[in-house]
Amino acid sequence: KQEVTQIPAALSVPEGENLVLNCSFTDSAIYNLQWFRQDPGKGLTSLLLIQSSQREQTSGRLNASLDKSSGRSTLYIAASQPGDSATYLCAVLTSGTYKYIFGTGTRLKVLA
Amino acid sequence: DVKVTQSSRYLVKRTGEKVFLECVQDMDHENMFWYRQDPGLGLRLIYFSYDVKMKEKGDIPEGYSVSREKKERFSLILESASTNQTSMYLCASSPSMTGDYGYTFGSGTRLTVV
Predict the structure, then answer these.
(1) Mean pLDDT of the residues in chain B
(2) Which H helix or E strand runs over A45?
(3) CA of A39: which chain B residue's CA is closest?
(4) d(Cα A39, Cα A34) in Å, to the nearest integer?
(5) In Å, how far is A16's CA from the nearest CA of chain B?
(6) Each residue of B54-78: pLDDT tens digit?
(7) Closest CA relative to residue A72, chosen from A31, A24, A112
(8) How many angstroms away from the CA of A81 is the closest CA of chain B?
(9) CA distances from A84 to A18, A38, A78, A80, A111 (A)
(10) Which residues, given as ranges, of chain A have pLDDT below 70?
């Protein structure tokens, strides 16, 4: 059974810092992995989708990497800003299944 | 951009009431999903639908049912609301069951059952 873990649960950094959020999963037979952002009381916004054949995806200041063999993905945020404050969730679609398994998220606070 | 619209942002219902949560998507997606989100438990799949009138149970279907009479609309029904169904409910849609294009989520409905 696929399990997805995100550590740390919460992170507080000063503005301008580069930071890395971690996501680990137990079954490496995945179809893809998706990173989301969730603002308080709101729905999820898709940030990046990495297919199993890809090593990384980039969008603006965000870069997500995938290492299937070690069961890990990282979300790198460059030059963090207070507007980046949110909860970041990763979700994994295991091969042969039709549903994403979500981590419980990392709550990020960027201090001005 | 794909839009997934959930009709209510906040709902307060009484125990025992029948509750309908509505979700509409505007991009002709085949697949729609209902999740609930609770602190410390993350998102858990309640039901999903891969076509009109087709539905599959997710991980926590007990106490819920769904309806998909039209492709664009997927309704979650709480047959007899209970306090343990107080939660944030999130609807999502996707054009592909294999997730080639990921999921698009609505803004969520925060339901409180008193």
Answers:
(1) 92
(2) strand A44-51
(3) B107
(4) 17
(5) 29
(6) 899 999 999 999 999 999 999 999 9
(7) A24
(8) 23
(9) 12, 10, 10, 7, 10
(10) none
| CB contact (8 A) between residue B50 and residue A98 | yes
Which of A43, A99, A100 is opposite residue B107, by nearest beta carbon? A43
Are A73 and A82 in contact by the 8 Å Cβ rule? The answer is: no
Q: In angstroms, what CA-CA distances link B71 with A51, A77, A88, A98, B74? A: 27, 37, 30, 18, 8
Which residues, 6+ apart, have CB-to-CB distance to B39 below 8 Å? none
Task: Return the structure tokens found at A47.
Answer: 């940030």
Evaluate the omega torsion of the peptide bond into residue A8 and state whether it is cis, within 30 degrees of 0: yes
Q: Which residue in chain B is spatially nearest to A49 when comparing CA positions?
A: B102
